[in-house]
Each structure stands twice: as C-alpha cells, then as structure tokens.
C-alpha cells in the first residue's frame, strides 16, 4: 500500500542508498550490533530459555540458520514498507527524508497519518496498532520467561510449584516500573532506559558468553554437545569449523573492538538535547543494575565453594554436577558421545543422587 502513495520513491531511495561516512562513527557500529542482537534475541536469555523446552534431539543447527535468514529477509522487507511511508511523510511535510527519519519515535506518531489515506483506513489503522501490540507482547513473552525461569531455577524445590506466583509478581513489578513511560515525559524515559540498559551491556554479555563457552567450557566439548543432539553428519562437515572459528575468535574480537572504541568515544544519551545530570545518574544506575549480576554471581560461586582461592576458581569454572540432559537415556547417549570423541560432558553420568532436584524439574 505504501507504494501507492506519493513520495514513496524518495523514502525507498534513502533506505537503499549507502551513507559511507557513518562507517567512521563508532556509535553506528554499536547501534548496528545492538540491533542485530535485539532482532535475533541473542544473548538476552530468551532464546536459550525457550530452546530449553525443545526435545533433546531437535536440530538446533537448522533452526539457527532458518531464524537468521528469516530475520534478515523480514528486516529488509520491513525497511521497504516503513521507508515508503516515511517518504510519503516527507512529501506531505515538505521536508527531507533524513529530517523525518531523525525524528525517531516521533516519526511513528505521524505514521498513522499516512494510513488514513489508504482504502478502508479504519481497518488498516486497527491492523497497524494490533501489529505494534503483538510485537510488544512477543518481546515480553521471551524476556519474561527468561527472567522467571532463571529465578525459579535458583530454588527449584521451593519455587517451581509456585511459578505462577513468581510470574505474577514479576509482571506486577514490571507494570509499576513501566507506568513512568506512559506519562508526558514517557519518550524521554523510554529513550534513557533503552540507551542505558540495551547497548553496552548486551555486547558484554555476548562477549563473555563466547569466551566462556569456547575457552572455559571448551569448543571441543561444546562441539560434542551439539554432536550428541544432532548427530555426526553436520558436526563433522568441514564448514562446521567455520562456526567454531567465529565463536572462538571472530565474534569475541569484533565485540571487544566495538566495546573498546565506544568506551573511548563514550557519549551520554540524548533526546531532543542532553539529559540533566540527575537523569544521567539514573541512567548509570540502570546500566549498573544489568551489569552488577556478573560480579555478584562470581563472588557467590567462589564463596560457596571450599578450598584455597585457586581451588575455588577451578571449581567455579567447572560445569555443575547436574549439567547435561535430564532424561536418563539422553544423558547416557551424551556421555558416551563425549567419551568416544575424547572429551567429558562435565556433569554426573548418573543423576540418582539428585533425584529430588530432578523430580522438581520433570514436574515443571
């Protein structure tokens, strides 16, 4: 429908025309990296949480390829749709497309104006806002499940049978904190929260995840974990080493460079001008609230172990005894796969000593 509106060509031309000067701006790389992580859901915890409900032998390798390709194609298609409407808005406002795009969230306030010019505008308006609602709910489903599952898994014997109450409490707290975004200053708060919690932190989480899996847990062990789930054919294919190389070297290196450059060129968040000092202080508190859990859990693991400092570090870097598949037959298969290919799974071969905890998991 956007292609039927005047000015759509200017919007699409703006979308597909490269602006090479932005490659020299560190903020562009940070925004691009965060957008990729946001659209794919990587390193947020939601994908890992939802995938934990899959069957053990589900082909996650194919799933990851399909999701990545579908995500890219969907983003490109959405870009054509959005920028065709932005081109129309620039035509109506007699302003350059770049000025309309730079309005950020305000650009979407004017987007419904373009919908009023379509045939049956009421229907299209309803569909448009239903789409926005579904996108918001979809994002919250994954993030909420990730947080609630993590909380319940900390104390499964106590909390798993009360998971609905934990979910209700989390939703109520999230609702109360979100009320501030519904005020007249809502866009300012939403932008501050977005830039403070979903930029540098997510890249750091991804970096630590790659380093932990590839170099601490071990990429050979991780490779055999995948082998035990999907078989030898794909894992033994030469192209699979490309993934290992990316997990171990390319991705951590790129993330480290992006974080370092942006740290050196750090700038405070802005929205129609700079934020006041007290608002920037709140932004730093938001950033700290997402990052503080890393040292907290490191200290927790070290203090909960026994022995010397060196022994405590060694134990903290080892997989837990319950690590691995829950079902006995899957666990035996994974253990044998690791032994056959020269690695260890890390967890116990027999979970008989953890029957109470496993019973709590299987009843979920």
Automatic annotation (TrEMBL):
PANTHER family: BLOATED TUBULES, ISOFORM B-RELATED, SODIUM/CHLORIDE DEPENDENT TRANSPORTER. It holds the Pfam family SNF. Keywords: Membrane, Metal-binding, Sodium, Transmembrane, Transmembrane helix, Transport. It comes from the Eukaryota. The keyword Cell inner membrane does not apply. This is Putative sodium-and chloride-dependent glycine transporter 2-like. It is found in: Membrane. The keyword Transport applies. InterPro entries: Na/ntran_symport, SNS_sf. One of its GO terms (molecular function) is glycine:sodium symporter activity. GO terms for cellular component: plasma membrane. The chain crosses the membrane at residues 32-53, 65-88, 114-137, 167-190, 196-219, 240-261, 281-302. SUPFAM superfamilies: SNF-like. It is a multi-pass membrane protein. Na(+) binds at residues 39, 71, 135, 138.
């Amino acid at each position: 429908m956007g292609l039927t509106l005047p000015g759509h060509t200017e919007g699409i031309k703006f979308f597909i025309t490269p602006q090479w000067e932005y490659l020299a701006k560190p903020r562009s790389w940070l925004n691009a990296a965060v957008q990729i992580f946001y659209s794919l859901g990587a390193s947020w915890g939601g994908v890992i949480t939802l995938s934990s409900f899959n069957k053990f032998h589900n082909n996650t390798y194919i799933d990851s390829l399909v999701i990545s390709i579908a995500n890219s194609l969907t983003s490109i298609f959405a870009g054509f749709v959005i920028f065709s409407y932005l081109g129309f808005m620039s035509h109506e406002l007699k302003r350059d497309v770049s000025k309309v795009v730079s309005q950020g969230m305000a650009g979407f306030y004017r987007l419904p104006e373009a919908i009023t010019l379509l045939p049956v505008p009421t229907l299209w308006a309803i569909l448009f806002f239903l789409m926005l609602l579904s996108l918001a709910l979809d994002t919250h489903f994954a993030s909420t499940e990730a947080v609630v599952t993590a909380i319940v898994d900390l104390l499964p014997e106590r909390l798993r049978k009360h998971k609905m109450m934990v979910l209700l409490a989390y939703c109520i707290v999230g609702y109360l904190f979100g009320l501030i975004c519904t005020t007249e200053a809502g866009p300012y708060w939403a932008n501050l929260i977005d830039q403070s919690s979903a930029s540098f932190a997510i890249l750091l989480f991804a970096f630590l995840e790659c380093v932990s899996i590839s170099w601490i847990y071990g990429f050979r062990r991780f490779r055999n974990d995948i082998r035990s789930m999907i078989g030898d054919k794909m894992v033994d294919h030469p192209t699979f080493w490309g993934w290992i190389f990316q997990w171990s070297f390319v991705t951590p290196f790129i993330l480290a460079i992006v974080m370092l450059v942006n740290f050196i060129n750090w700038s405070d968040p802005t929205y129609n001008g700079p934020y006041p000092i007290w608002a920037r202080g709140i932004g730093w508190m938001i950033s700290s609230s997402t990052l503080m859990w890393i040292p907290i859990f490191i200290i927790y693991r070290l203090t909960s172990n026994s022995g010397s400092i060196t022994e405590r570090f060694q134990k903290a870097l080892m997989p837990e005894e319950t690590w691995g598949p829950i079902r006995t037959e899957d666990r035996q298969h994974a253990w044998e796969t690791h032994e056959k290919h020269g690695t260890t799974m890390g967890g116990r071969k027999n979970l008989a000593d953890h029957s109470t905890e496993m019973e709590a998991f299987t009843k979920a």
